[in-house]
Amino acid sequence: MSQAEGSYYVPHESRWPVYGVPGMVLLAAGFAVYLNGGDWGVPTMVLGAVITLMMVVMWFRDVINESVSGKYNHQVDVSFRQGMAWFIFSEVMFFGAFFGALFYARVFIVPWLSGADPATSQYLWDSVLLSWPTAGPGMQDLQYEAMGPWMLPALNTLILLTSGVTLTWAHHAIKENHRSKVVLGLLATVLLGATFSFIQGYEYIHAWHDLNLQLSTGIYGSLFYMLTGFHGLHVIIGALTLLVILLRVLRGHFTPDDHFGFEAAAWYWHFVDVVWLGLFVFVYLI
After folding, report:
1. Which domain, by its residues, includes 175?
2. φ/ψ of residue 255, rounded to 5
3. pTM of this prediction?
4. CATH number, domain at 54?
């Protein structure tokens, strides 16, 4: 039975945040220990990932059950839309911090240390000439190659742009209640996302072993992996979310007038597309 007009559904108390917080803490702590060479980093990371994944699956289950049982009304839909908008805004700030670090290093630090301001640079790294991409002062003898924009990065750009088209096609199809087209569009988007992740993994192996471009390659290496790595994580999360939406479509969920779960996943995926365009331009191209 749907909610009465003018009422508002208040969810019951959930235990899943209690599980989610330690899971994410263990995941982050294990990753930090792994980066610093600790022996227990990987097992802790795996344990945290398993706990976090279980929390997400069970929480998704509860929300889906509440939705299909008719407990949500227009007010809840508005709240969901506002919440998703604020979530994406927080993601904009998240990536903005890393883009800001890249901008600060390229526009301010590199020229400053290269003698643009002789009055101060002589007290830091005298006679150092740097140009981007650079590992930074003190690492001029480090042999590495920067990752170029063409081949793998350009191919991944084409893949993500295509995935945005297939997802938009599926969105129009769900509004017209063409469920077979929705399934095809979502399936194509998920497969394109998986292909992107596979190519990026191959790119990392090539960069790490063939180009000697590693996390330890100064400011360029750390920014390269932090920016592209976090984006890659978002692609994986987005593809998994769209996979859940695909499974829901196959089970008959969503209607032309009630499909915000689909829309929220689409908003997130299009945001990931836009971030990649920024990465392609500012990390790979220029």
Report:
1. 73-285
2. -135, 170
3. 0.86
4. 1.10.287.70
